[in-house]
Amino acid sequence: MNWALQCAKGVAYLHGMTPSLIHRDLKSPNLLLVHGGRVLKICDFGTACDKKTYMTNNKGSAAWMAPEVFEGSKYTEKCDIYSWGIILWELIARERPFKGDRSTAYSIMWSVHKGLRPPVIKGCPRPIHVLYTRCWDKEPKIRPSMEEVVSVMDKLMPYFGGFDEPIKSDDESMPEPDDCTDCTDDEEEE
């Protein structure tokens, strides 16, 4: 969880710059671990641009790409939020977000366009599930800001171990999503 928080803080820094910077290719292969895995660095700013730049071209990697990007809509910071939600899912699931029949760029984009996302992670703490699913919502305006993500993650971090410890889902003292964020899960439990 520490890596996810460090990534969120890095992206929040980019979004808070003047002018705001959008990474546009945020994905796990563009995250570097240094200092024995304790520190995460974001790399590959080759497709980054400031928010004022009107971009609609299809930049990024399909598995982490927000639906509005490949549908030709305008890039906003919310594209990075979507990508971060996929990264959080990856860190918890410890696998690629799309595999098998849905692993080609076209099939991933088609699946995401149709509303499919990576599968629910069995045993994932509910506040984390709510957070990553809110981040990858099809509607950009429903996604939280990266500042909101950082705030939620800061509140949840005391419930998790160090940077190298897997998530334990048996902690019933963890706050419910309503206690730690304005982003609530309107969907029924699966």
UniProtKB/TrEMBL annotation:
<dbReference type="InterPro" id="IPR000719">
    <property type="entry name" value="Prot_kinase_dom"/>
</dbReference>
<dbReference type="GO" id="GO:0046872">
    <property type="term" value="F:metal ion binding"/>
</dbReference>
<feature type="region of interest" description="Disordered">
    <location>
        <begin position="165"/>
        <end position="190"/>
    </location>
</feature>
<dbReference type="Pfam" id="PF07714">
    <property type="entry name" value="PK_Tyr_Ser-Thr"/>
</dbReference>
<feature type="domain" description="Protein kinase">
    <location>
        <begin position="1"/>
        <end position="160"/>
    </location>
</feature>
<keyword id="KW-0479">Metal-binding</keyword>
<dbReference type="InterPro" id="IPR011009">
    <property type="entry name" value="Kinase-like_dom_sf"/>
</dbReference>
<comment type="similarity">
    <text>Belongs to the protein kinase superfamily. STE Ser/Thr protein kinase family. MAP kinase kinase kinase subfamily.</text>
</comment>
<keyword id="KW-0067">ATP-binding</keyword>
<dbReference type="GO" id="GO:0005524">
    <property type="term" value="F:ATP binding"/>
</dbReference>
<dbReference type="GO" id="GO:0043410">
    <property type="term" value="P:positive regulation of MAPK cascade"/>
</dbReference>
<keyword id="KW-0723">Serine/threonine-protein kinase</keyword>
<keyword id="KW-0808">Transferase</keyword>
<dbReference type="GO" id="GO:0004709">
    <property type="term" value="F:MAP kinase kinase kinase activity"/>
</dbReference>
<keyword id="KW-0418">Kinase</keyword>
<protein>
    <recommendedName>
        <fullName>Mitogen-activated protein kinase kinase kinase 7</fullName>
        <ecNumber>2.7.11.25</ecNumber>
    </recommendedName>
</protein>
<feature type="compositionally biased region" description="Acidic residues">
    <location>
        <begin position="172"/>
        <end position="190"/>
    </location>
</feature>
<dbReference type="GO" id="GO:0007254">
    <property type="term" value="P:JNK cascade"/>
</dbReference>
<dbReference type="InterPro" id="IPR008271">
    <property type="entry name" value="Ser/Thr_kinase_AS"/>
</dbReference>
<dbReference type="GO" id="GO:0043123">
    <property type="term" value="P:positive regulation of canonical NF-kappaB signal transduction"/>
</dbReference>
<dbReference type="GO" id="GO:0009893">
    <property type="term" value="P:positive regulation of metabolic process"/>
</dbReference>
<dbReference type="GO" id="GO:0019899">
    <property type="term" value="F:enzyme binding"/>
</dbReference>
<dbReference type="InterPro" id="IPR001245">
    <property type="entry name" value="Ser-Thr/Tyr_kinase_cat_dom"/>
</dbReference>
<dbReference type="GO" id="GO:0006955">
    <property type="term" value="P:immune response"/>
</dbReference>
<keyword id="KW-0460">Magnesium</keyword>
<keyword id="KW-0547">Nucleotide-binding</keyword>
<dbReference type="GO" id="GO:0006950">
    <property type="term" value="P:response to stress"/>
</dbReference>
